[in-house]
Amino acid sequence: MCWEIKGWISGGYMAAREDGEMVFIYKRPAWGTGQCGRREFFELRSRGELIARITSNDAVQPHLKAEWVAETDRPVNETDLLEIAGALKL
């Protein structure tokens, strides 16, 4: 399925899928989270629960890391996470 990233909405972005499923993407500070040294740090939430993190290091050629953290079955899966990470302009 194709994800569309909506503009800046109250401290983050919203990704919407064709079937109406939504994921909210919040930019977080790297300090205090164990993510120091990261250029970008995003949390993805679906239906109020944390489902994934996307980080990017501070190098000449940034390395993007998408990490799935949800423990239960969700309408969003790891494949969706990869599509959302690819659609973000980091």
Please describe the topology of this protein.
Blueprint: E1 3-5, E2 12-17, E3 22-27, E4 38-46, E5 49-57, E6 64-68, H1 78-87
Antiparallel strand pairs: 1-2, 2-3, 3-4, 4-5, 5-6
Structural overview:
19% of the residues are buried. 11% of the residues lie in helices and 42% in strands. The model has no long low-confidence stretch (mean pLDDT 81). It is mostly beta strands. The chain has a six-stranded antiparallel beta sheet, covered by helices on one side. The two termini are 21 Å apart.
Keywords:
mainly beta, globular, 6-stranded antiparallel beta sheet, 90 residues
Short description:
This protein is mostly beta strands.
Low-confidence stretches: none
Taken as a percent bin, the fraction of beta residues is 35-45%
Radius of gyration: 13 Å
Overall pLDDT metric: 81
| Sheet of most strands | 6 strands, antiparallel
Overall structural domain count: 1
